[in-house]
Specification:
By secondary structure, the chain is of the alpha/beta class. Helix content is 41%, strand content 16%. Strands 1, 2, 3, 4, 5, 6, 7, 9, 11 and 12 form a 10-stranded mixed β-sheet that branches.
Length: 693
């Protein structure tokens, strides 16, 4: 098996000769898995021309100005289409075999997600800067009192140094630095890339913090070794240290709560003052900390405002990242990749997304709370007391967060729940709380907005947005051949195969599909793949199938690796729902280039318009034998090698539209609050519909 392709991202600024040395140390060539993408931040030493001439195989992005490390890295990654991206400083030299060892470890140990290595100086001694401990109030207190300097590499008094560990064993760490950092490109997008508020220093610590929050485990791989000329392109030590301090301050405000961040900044300032005073008292020739102290008004505000003093340039205006808590965001990807794909695309466009936690609503600034299936979030399980506790905790935390401007968004996947959870009274209370608190609704179709407002007239004056349901083409390996798929599933090699796939619920009408199919005189095969719920449904399905050998039942949860196999074996996917608003299963079928038969309900007619009648066929009322017979003939006689055009369902566009919706809802709520605070003005909110068209 060939090694996965890796794009090495190098950000260069006026270090032409050293950068060429770095590039030359990267294993390149026709048979290499590594490609170099160089981002030049407006160098004045002829770097673009000279590097281009010395390394013609390198892809060079000439930014034309110094946009800093975080923004430069993001520009480079945006040009990548490789499996992995690897950040590499221009003042490094890669030792032979190191990058290959790093990628090999990542392939064998995908659970870590973020991978760093070991850095050494020119004489081969350890340079500890490949990783650090995360700042804490204790570590900053040690800095403020001078303990971290007096007791260097002490696990207790210099905790950010990670003690005397020589980086010579595999070990999880809080921070992998950007001098050598490997991550899957899809994981990079999920984490959200580098925060562009940072200019230089601190962005890798904040990136690692977000990665850990998303469930990744940054790790050091000792076999991956680079020589690192630390700080080779940052000028004087005082200026460099001021940039480090600005990065730390920015990290604190990004990651910590406001009171803790303020305390941390005061501790940093105290430590800088102590060291500046010691330089004066000892008449030291070094001015490192005196320069840092002199520039404290710049760095204690953090980036981007620190750019003005530290770099003599007006800071680039970077819009503040929206902080989103979603229920769910990434935690349900194992069952359905919809939410994970949505929030990765949102993070690519600049938001910071986490799964909802009640305590975080109270302790952290949150701009948007986004609910998808409230009945699953709050009313799951059989204990009504637990449902009441969840509702009380969530809406109490939300009330506190709303004082700081948090808005509540609801994606109305279904107007009514497919399953009745909890008691009727608690369901009514839960629905009432949601409708009274929601600031904006999102639906996956225009019809979905209309259906929501008809079901809940209180939503008429609530702003709404339409965002499509994205495709699954990039989530599964759909390269399985039909003949191989049928063989692995023990299905007939000849004759049509009809498939119903997904979680099997009563409203999906599977027993009726089986009865209709069995009434046909056909050589077709019907495959039912999915886990029934409730348990009584499984018995109904088995009774409907009887002993008909043409009906194949695979009544288990279908793991991700089997989904493409089931779809590849099919000629037609049938979804005979008795009620439906949207269907991820229909889009899954189209993602696998399979035609689908669906009822003319909910948004299915809009889906047919999006994908075309050659891929989506509708039936009226309850599925009949005539409907199924005609659909089998349609699917098996008109299929060609063409693929449905899924451009309307691209996640990148959907993420952008979702962010637009968030901004609309926030702006509308702010306007409404101003109207309430000024009662002499005209009242009435009106209704705003934001559509992707």
């Amino acid at each position: 098996m060939s090694a996965p392709r890796v794009d090495v991202i190098i950000v260069n600024y006026n270090t032409c000769e050293r950068t060429i040395e770095c590039i030359e140390s990267v294993p390149r060539g026709a048979n290499s898995a590594f490609r170099v993408i160089l981002v030049d931040n407006g160098s004045s030493d002829g770097s673009v021309e000279r590097i281009g001439a010395a390394c013609p195989d390198v892809k060079i992005i000439d930014v034309g100005e110094n946009i800093g490390f975080a923004r430069g890295v993001n520009r480079g990654v945006a040009e990548s289409d490789a499996v992995y991206v690897l950040l590499l400083n221009p003042d490094t030299t890669v030792l032979s075999g190191s990058l290959e060892a790093l990628v090999a470890f990542a392939e064998l140990n995908p659970e870590y997600g973020i991978y760093g290595g070991r850095t050494v100086t020119e004489d081969g001694s350890l340079d500890p800067s490949s990783c650090w401990g995360a700042p804490t109030l204790w570590s900053l207190a040690c800095f403020a009192t001078g303990a971290s300097t007096a007791f260097k590499q002490s696990a207790a008094l210099d905790p950010e140094s990670l003690g005397g560990w020589a980086r010579d064993t595999v070990r999880e760490v809080p921070v992998v630095t950007g001098c050598l950092l490997l991550v899957g490109r899809a994981d990079w997008q999920r984490i959200g890339g580098m925060d562009e508020r940072f200019f230089l220093y601190g962005e890798d610590a904040e990136f690692s913090a977000r990665a850990r929050a998303a469930g990744y485990r940054p790790v050091i791989v000792p076999e991956a070794v680079i020589q690192h000329d630390v700080g080779g392109s940052t000028g004087s030590t005082g200026r460099k240290m001021a940039m480090v301090m600005a990065g730390k301050v920015t990290y604190l405000w990004c990651v910590w709560t406001a009171p803790a961040a303020l305390a941390g900044v005061l501790l940093l300032q105290a430590g800088a003052g102590l060291r500046a005073g010691l330089e004066v008292a000892t008449r030291s020739a070094k001015r490192t900390w005196r320069d840092v102290w002199a520039n404290r008004r710049a760095w204690r505000k953090g980036y981007p405002s620190a750019e003005r003093t530290l770099f003599g340039r007006q800071p680039r205006l970077v819009s503040r990242q929206l902080r989103v808590q979603a229920e769910p965001a990434f935690r349900t990807e194992g069952a359905n990749p919809y939410n994970g794909s949505l929030y990765r695309s949102i993070q690519v466009h600049g938001a910071h997304v986490r799964d909802l936690q009640y305590w975080r609503l109270v302790t952290h600034r949150t701009d948007v709370v986004h609910l998808h299936w409230p009945e699953l979030s709050f009313l799951s399980g059989s204990r009504c007391s637990l449902h009441i506790v969840r509702l009380a905790l969530f809406y109490s935390a939300l009330a506190f967060a709303r004082l700081r401007g948090t808005v509540l968004v609801w994606t109305v996947h279904n107007v009514t729940s497919h399953e009745e959870r909890s008691s009727p009274h608690i369901r009514r209370v839960a629905q009432g709380l949601l409708i009274r608190n929601v600031d904006g609704i999102i639906a996956l179709s225009e019809q979905g907005i209309d259906a929501a407002r008809q079901a809940y007239p209180q939503l008429v004056d609530v702003p709404a947005a339409v965002t499509a349901h994205g495709h699954y083409r990039n989530e599964y390996d759909f390269a399985v051949r039909p003949d191989e798929a049928r063989k692995s599933l023990n299905l007939p090699a000849d004759g049509p195969v009809i498939v119903a796939i997904g979680q099997l619920r009563p409203y999906k009408n599977i027993p009726h599909l089986i009865e209709v199919f069995r009434s046909l005189d056909s050589d077709a095969t019907l495959l039912i793949a999915g886990k029934p719920s409730p348990i009584e449904l499984e018995q109904q399905i088995r009774e409907a199938a009887g002993d008909d050998p043409r009906v194949v039942l695979d009544l288990r949860f279908v793991p991700d690796e089997d989904i493409p196999v089931v779809l590849a074996a099919s000629d037609l996917v049938v979804l005979p729902y008795s009620r439906i608003q949207n269907s991820g299963s229909a889009i899954l079928a189209a993602s696998a280039d399979r035609p689908v038969l669906v009822p003319d309900l909910g948004a299915m007619r809009e889906l047919q318009t999006q994908l075309g009648e050659e891929w989506v066929q509708l039936f009226d009322g309850e599925l009949t034998a005539e409907d199924l017979k005609a659909a089998i003939e349609w699917a098996t006689t008109s299929r060609q090698d063409a693929r449905p055009n899924l451009a309307p369902l691209e996640w990148d566009v959907i993420g952008e539209h979702t962010l637009d919706a968030y901004r609309l809802f926030r702006a509308t709520r702010q306007r409404n609050r101003r109207r309430l605070s000024q009662p002499w003005r005209a009242s009435g909110t009106g209704s705003v519909l934001l559509s992707p068209q």
